[in-house]
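This part of the workshop introduces the protein records we will be handling. An example says more than a description, so a record of this kind follows:
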Amino acid sequence: MNSRNQLKRMQSDSAVVPDVKCGSTPCGVEEVLDMQRILNDYNIIRGKVPTQDEFWDVVAITTADEEQCKAYRKQVAWKLKRKELPVVSFHVFADPPGPKIGNGGSTFHALKQLYRLYGANETSRKRVLLIHAGGQSKRLPSATVIGKIFTALPLGDPMFHMLDVKLAIYMPFIRKMRPGVFLTCADDIEVYTLDSDADWSFTNLGFTALAHPATLEFGTKHGVYVLPTDKLDFETATFVSDCLEVLQKPTKSLMEQKGAVCCRKNGEKFTYTDSAFYFDADVSKELLEFADRQGSVSCEIDAYGDFLQALGHRATPNYINNTVNVSDVNSNLIETRMKVYDLLNGTPLHLVVLNYSRFYHLGSMEEYLFHMCQDDQFSRSMGFKRFVFSKIQSRNLLPDSSRETENEGSGIEKRAGYHQQCAYEPPDNASIQGCIMHSLLTESSLIQPSSVVEYSHFDFPIQIDGRCIISHCTYAQADGAQLPSEHSLHVYPGTFLHTVPVNVDGQSWYATVMFHVEDDLKASANTLKEAEGLKYFGQKLSDVIDRYKGIDIVRDGHRAERRFERAFEVTTPKYSLWAAKLFPLLKSRSQSFQVALDCLQTVLKQRDFAPIPCMYVSMADVAELRDLDLMLDERNELHEKLKAIV
């Protein structure tokens, strides 16, 4: 594809609709009312002590490491202080250092910590919501540093994060649930219509899982339940069934062979797929005793693939040797999986089938953009708004010569640029569209409806084209920003920009990471030569780096010409966009953002860019060097500024 056609494609505002799982029922009035009632019930108890059966006794969140754990605890503390969460016990547990242990290993570790804190008797009397929220979130890098459980969502007052939605959407199940653990992940949302009078509950022994109707295509990428044909009820909103077998990412032919394919009266084929699940206090005790016998988990165990596949009347250990979905295979994996199978096989598994439900995954840039900006059905169900906890500044541009000169010592600071007059929310026909959350913008900005802006502050007009994600970016006078030469900043279509403070040798710097929303950050190459062909904004990575002329300062302080091989660490085991040193480190947020826009023009317009001498970092470096405290402090500073604006 030539450069002209490439640029034209990148500037298209057309949406790429992600492969989302949904039931075959449309978004009806009942679903909208049910979900908004659930979210409203949650909103009422924020900042209060819930009554019995109204909310979880304990909420436990798992993280990938101690640094992420520290950030989560600080954010939970802030939300509790601001009365944004119900007043119950919140715990954040970091996975132990060492090899990846998967969300199954995290479950073992979290149970150990809960029993240590409360003792066996007290823990067995509690209803626990366990949210697995670790991982690097490579497909949605704006969640890498802060964590996907704190992804902002455009609803609520105060504004919801993903954590709030996860706390809210399972509340109707609590009153029909015995003590035990309800397990979920941090990057999906289930919407549903619930038949509250039907004979369903989470009181059966063993495991009880939610099941949702989905297309066969979606079933090939998720867990699939095989139900007895005599238990099928396609018309009732909610019913309970036992389960014959659990399949993980099966082919369509295997679904047919196993009896997992259902057919409606109109001939439409579908299957029932997984999301969250519950296990009772007796299972918790068995898992804990197993973990104690096993010692530290040293391999990747999946709570869905390894716990659930061991269940069902027809379960077999045939899946044990299938490691295609395991990212880190080591010598202990097969043996440990077999032990988990032996432990859980024969334990009852029941399904609470939600016929009128949909499951939404927000794990990638494209999924996030689509569901935030263009999925009207999802937005109606959740009650999403387009403009949440944000303000638009009204300003006049005055030439320096017309500014009033203040006497020295008057306490009035003379500034170049814009004078703030007031702040307001945009009318429906304003040029600022998109999904705007926790941000301070300037009038005369132009933001397309299919873009997201979060945690950002712009003192000057900005043009943001379609399908962009702008996260934690700043171009502010107080940070040294000056009026752009063309009186506006411009972000081209499909661009992801995210400014992150990092700490290098005790000094604070800023990196604004930049990708296209269709870039595959997980794609890798084994050799440097192969890495030249990695796609960055639809172009060969080596071609882009060749246009970055100038001086590069590497970590040892020696200056060298910018060459492709210097974009990666010498010891890099795999070459990927995640590991490519593409982003300069600069001393201020505004300067970092401006240079990122210069780099963007270089990438898209194919012109050379001569940056100032500086160190370049990769997204992997940013994740390692992140200054979480500073980033959270900056978000809190913007929060207080927005609150203070009338």
